[in-house]
Amino acid sequence: MWDRRLVRLALLQQLRAVYGIKVKSGRGQCDRRRHETAATDTAGKIFGVPFNVLPHSVVPEYGHIPSFLVDACTSLEEHIHTEGLFRKSGSVVRLRALKNKLDHGESCLASAPPCDVAGLLKQFFRELPEPILPVDLHEALFKAQQLGTEEKNKATLLLSCLMTDHTTDVLRYFFNFLKSVSLRSSENKMDSSNLAVIFAPNLLQTSEGHEKMSANTEKKLRIQAAGMFQILSRKRYRPCWVLMVSVLLHH
Questions:
Q1: What phi and psi, each to the nearest 5 degrees, are found at residue 23?
Q2: Where are the alpha helices (DSSP H) in 104-210?
Q3: Are 169 and 249 in contact (CB under 8 A)?
């Protein structure tokens, strides 16, 4: 069994030495412990609670994925052709009512309009206690996307290995769903670039509202999210432990 601290150190050294990318020391562990301690106060809720207390479903090839995420993506797959999916806003009143029902254990997605389900999906990521893409990796992800194609892919894959296995599994599942959406862009007008712009503020949980976002910030967010989307949505995505072994053997 690999010592995860040793693996992390090796990955950080590789990123710094080969690609000139330094990863900031995060405060995630402390925050995670605090959120886990407060988990008893969030029993049954879907929004605003950490992954570890959410109901999960086992999805082949991905593992344990939050049940709400699976249900929402499954529901939207039937409406994947809808023009402006994720771009068009759902009803604020209906979203509030749907969120309340979900937090009280009611199944209501099947009968909800697709734009409302899409809105709930964005809200789900936006209200996580911590962004699913760890804060300490945000700047590193942006720097990785400035590299040449091959180096960019390798550096982004190394950065993905710094995330927990569960986080990577959830992102792979969700990004593959978004890839399916982008493949129908001739109908829904939502290509991968548009999806990255829309989801980056939610996955990264930026302090700036989407409406107030500057062009420079929007570009940076799109680049960060697009990098992870490109790597994790690949069918031939290499498990991180394979890369970890390779890195450790060269140290």
A1: -100, 125
A2: 114-126, 138-144, 149-160, 165-182, 185-188, 192-204
A3: no
- Cα 139 to chain centroid distance, Å, stands at 16
pTM as predicted: 0.81
Residue 244 reports pLDDT greater than 70: no
The string of pLDDT tens digits covering residues 74-111 is 999 999 999 999 999 889 999 999 999 999 999 999 99
**Domain of residue 210, residue span:** 4-249
Burial class, 4, CB count within 10 angstroms (exposed 0-12 / middle 13-18 / buried 19+): exposed
Provide the pLDDT for residue 233: 60
Total domains, the chain = 1
- Specify the pLDDT at position 227: 63
What is the number of other CB atoms lying within 10 angstroms of the CB of residue 68? Answer: 19
Backbone angles phi, psi at 57, to 5 degrees: -120, 145
Burial letters 151-177, b for 16+ CB under 10 A, else e? ebbbbbbbbbbbbeeebbbbbbbbbbb
Least confident of 80-89, 159-168, 200-209: 200-209
CB 191 within 8 A of CB 138: no
Q: Which CATH number do you get for residue 200? A: 1.10.555.10
CA–CA distance from 33 to each of 80, 129, 169, 202 (Å)? 38, 12, 21, 22
Task: Show contacts of 59-64: CB within 8 Å, 24+ apart.
Answer: 59/173, 62/169, 62/170, 62/172, 62/173, 63/165, 63/166, 63/169, 64/166, 64/169
How many H helices and E strands in the chain?
A: 12, 2
